[in-house]
Amino acid sequence: MTATKGTRVLAPGTLDGLSALVTGAGSGIGRAVTVRLAELGAHVTGIGRHEDTLAATGELVDSGAYDYHVCDVRDLDAVSAVVADTGRRHGLGLLVNNAGGQFFARADDISPGGWRSVLDLNLTSVFHITKAAHPFLAASRGAVVNISLSGVERGGMGMAHSIAARAGVLGLTRTLALEWAAEGIRLNCLGPGTVLTHALSDEASEHVLGNLVDRATPMRTPTPPEDVAELVAFLASPAGALMTGQLLQIDGGAHLGPGLHMLPEAYR
Ligand SMILES: CCC/C=C/C(=O)SCCNC(=O)CCNC(=O)[C@H](O)C(C)(C)COP(=O)([O-])OP(=O)([O-])OC[C@H]1O[C@@H](n2cnc3c(N)ncnc32)[C@H](O)[C@@H]1OP(=O)([O-])[O-]
Ligand SMILES: NC(=O)C1=CN([C@@H]2O[C@H](COP(=O)(O)OP(=O)(O)OC[C@H]3O[C@@H](n4cnc5c(N)ncnc54)[C@H](OP(=O)(O)O)[C@@H]3O)[C@@H](O)[C@H]2O)C=CC1
């Protein structure tokens, strides 16, 4: 494995005056995105289910640049109310739909309940949050960044539910990029490769480091969450003003390799 460090290239003040909403701001990619947006001048409202981790993110940013709401994004009424409250108090120039996840199982072992829980988290919540944000995004000519997965267009063993949900988000992203273009709203998806956040670190093991990073990622490196954050900030900045409806895979070339599969037998 080759370790790469997160890179910061955008100038201080790039996002001065921006109001952003980041789901899953209490850890991993969402925390890195929150910290970087705030460093660049944005005010960020975070959403997640755990107050302690959301508060800990606040310790990494200047006071006044961040607040949070404890909320499950699958509670559609509650999360829509949070979006509306944020929009009314701060305006909304950027929505980052980052909260997400799945268990890893072959399709035969995914029950109807398991399918529904992953679809609710990774697709249905994104639709409702984005719809609730629409009037505020229209007022600011704002942007949406949906955090997806490298390989969303090709499939990944052990992730039938999650890939189906993220492919749905990609379709939603491109559809809304068309429907809302006249209002100046842009929507894009980012596809990170293997990110060694705590969710994967328990498994940071032979499978994650040996298979996903060394075998399945041509550049043999994990994706630093800070690199994902810099790309989110770029898309929110004036430099991203004509980018919409895209899937940007930030994955060391993993989408060109043998695929990121969560069933280790895929690599035998
Ligand atoms: C290379 C890229 C890889 C990507 C990496 C990342 O994204 S890492 C970053 C992301 N971080 C994460 O992904 C964090 C970890 N993931 C999670 O928090 C959860 O997996 C969740 C969000 C999907 C479910 O949340 P929830 O509160 O709804 O869970 P619940 O307990 O109420 O169960 C609901 C249903 O699911 C079923 N079920 C559950 N587990 C398994 C299993 N192993 N097997 C089979 N089935 C399973 C369970 O039986 C039930 O179905 P039933 O019995 O009613 O038919
Ligand atoms: N790690 C990786 O290799 C990759 C991750 N991704 C995706 O990136 C995104 C971020 O993942 P990552 O940072 O790695 O992992 P984390 O598990 O650290 O982040 C997931 C975040 O989402 C929040 N969250 C989960 N469920 C809910 C919910 N129902 N309501 C509100 N918030 C919720 C969690 O907070 P809380 O538990 O407090 O609610 C947590 O902060 C996910 O969508 C993931 O699938 C994509 C490619 C690769």
TrEMBL record:
Keyword annotations of the record: Fatty acid biosynthesis, Fatty acid metabolism, Lipid biosynthesis, Lipid metabolism, NADP, Oxidoreductase, Peroxisome, Phosphoprotein
Transmembrane annotation, as ranges: none
UniProt catalytic activity: (2E)-tetradecenoyl-CoA + NADPH + H(+) = tetradecanoyl-CoA + NADP(+); (2E)-octenoyl-CoA + NADPH + H(+) = octanoyl-CoA + NADP(+); (2E)-decenoyl-CoA + NADPH + H(+) = decanoyl-CoA + NADP(+); a (2E)-enoyl-CoA + NADPH + H(+) = a 2,3-saturated acyl-CoA + NADP(+)
Cellular localization per UniProt: Peroxisome
InterPro entries: NAD(P)-bd_dom_sf (IPR036291), Peroxisomal_t2-enoyl-CoA_red (IPR052388), SDR_fam (IPR002347)
SUPFAM superfamilies tied to this protein: NAD(P)-binding Rossmann-fold domains
UniProt pathway annotation: Lipid metabolism
The UniProt record lists the keyword Phosphoprotein: yes
Complex and partners: Interacts with PEX5, probably required to target it into peroxisomes.
Function (record text): Participates in chain elongation of fatty acids. Catalyzes the reduction of trans-2-enoyl-CoAs of varying chain lengths from 6:1 to 16:1, having maximum activity with 10:1 CoA. Has no 2,4-dienoyl-CoA reductase activity.
Name of the molecule in the record: Peroxisomal trans-2-enoyl-CoA reductase
